[in-house]
Write a structure and sequence with these properties.
single chain; 156 residues; alpha+beta; 434 Repressor (Amino-terminal Domain); 12% strand
C-alpha cells in the first residue's frame, strides 16, 4: 500500500488529513485526524506516553487469580504451538510457555535480563554453559534439552 501524504487545507475545519490511498483514478481512502471533545474538555493525545506493556502485565500478575489465568494462557499457547509444529524439537519459548512463565518471570528466576531471554529465544545470543544450566534448572528440563532447542532455533 503506497501512502500519499497531502498538505493540510483549512477547508477541512477540525479534520486534518494524514494520508491518502488512491483505489483507482477517481477514488481513494483518506486517513484523517479529527479533533474531538468530551464533556467540554479536549482529549489530549499521549503520543506514546501510555503505560508500557510490562507495567500492565505486572499489574495483572500482582493479582493471584489473574496471574494464574495468564500462566494457563501461556501453557495453552505452548500446547497449540506443539500441535502446530508436530514432531519438531520445539523452541525455548515453547519450553518457557509450557511452564506458564513470561520472559520477565524466567529472567527473574535465572537472574538474567528479560532482554537477554528475548535475544536467546530469537537465536541472537550465544549460550554459555552457565546460561544453559540456569535455563535448565528454571524450566525443569535437562541441559541437553536446552541445547537441542537452541540448536533447532539456530537451524531455522
Amino acid at each position: 500500500m503506497k501512502l500519499t501524504t497531502r498538505t493540510y487545507n483549512e477547508s477541512f475545519g477540525t479534520m486534518m488529513p494524514l494520508g491518502f490511498q488512491p483505489t483507482d483514478q477517481t477514488e481513494g481512502w483518506m486517513v484523517v485526524a479529527v479533533h474531538v471533545t468530551f464533556g467540554g474538555e479536549a482529549v489530549r493525545p499521549h503520543h506514546g506516553r501510555g503505560r508500557p506493556i510490562s507495567s500492565l502485565i505486572a499489574d495483572r500478575e500482582a493479582d493471584p487469580r489473574r496471574a494464574k489465568a495468564l500462566s494457563r494462557a501461556r501453557q495453552k499457547l505452548s500446547s497449540m504451538l506443539k500441535e502446530h509444529d508436530g514432531d519438531a524439537p520445539g523452541t525455548l519459548a515453547e519450553l518457557r510457555l509450557s511452564k506458564g512463565l513470561s520472559q520477565t518471570a524466567l529472567a527473574d528466576i535465572t537472574g538474567m535480563q528479560q532482554s537477554y531471554i528475548a535475544r536467546i529465544e530469537r537465536s541472537k545470543a550465544e549460550l554459555r554453559s552457565s546460561t544453559v544450566k540456569k535455563l535448565a534448572q528454571a524450566l525443569d528440563v535437562s541441559c541437553d534439552q536446552i541445547i537441542a532447542v537452541a540448536c533447532a532455533d539456530d537451524e531455522d
